Amino acid sequence: MKKPESEVIRFVRIAWASWPGSWQRYNQIIGATLRLCAEGFQWERGDIAQLIGICRNGRCDIHRCLGEFGFEGLYTIAVRTGNLSYCLEYERYCQREPIIVDDVNGRQRDRVCIGSEFQWNDERVKVTSFRKGRAVACSYRETVEAEECATCGCCTRGPRKTISKRYAISTSDVKQDRKKRREAAKPAGPPQ
Questions:
Q1: Which of 7, 38, 69, 76 is deepest in the core (most CB within 10 A)?
Q2: 10 Å Cβ neighbour count for 21?
Q3: Whole-structure pTM value
């Protein structure tokens, strides 16, 4: 007996069935549908692979629909909205362990995604991408180089942020950091 399709696949098939007469609008519809699914639909094992397979056989370019961040962008949406089922499905699909850090984006502990900000090595860092199972996070410093217009002397460009340090953070790095902070927080033994 064939397993019934998940609600995600059924919803996306409804969007695929619509043809607004324009490829651009069609891709926008599919992209909006997938973003909506990442926000709150229940994802099941194999949904991402099935979506990619359906797109290969159909008229939809899944990468054009999702834009430059692709499924990673949907992961960001799912983390921020708390859709654990998509997070788990994407991590399974990518064969990537979740990177869960403390005090991320004002929450006590959560997965990191593109745009997440947290404390790392006594610096505030922001995740810019993922590579080989690691979160690439950068710390920034503000440069105070203001440029002036040669004609009128008005400021044309104010201070901007430049990368100070770049880190590649894995799950094991987070666990080691957490252990180190826990040990540092332990009170010292009785005086001798």
A1: 38
A2: 6
A3: 0.83
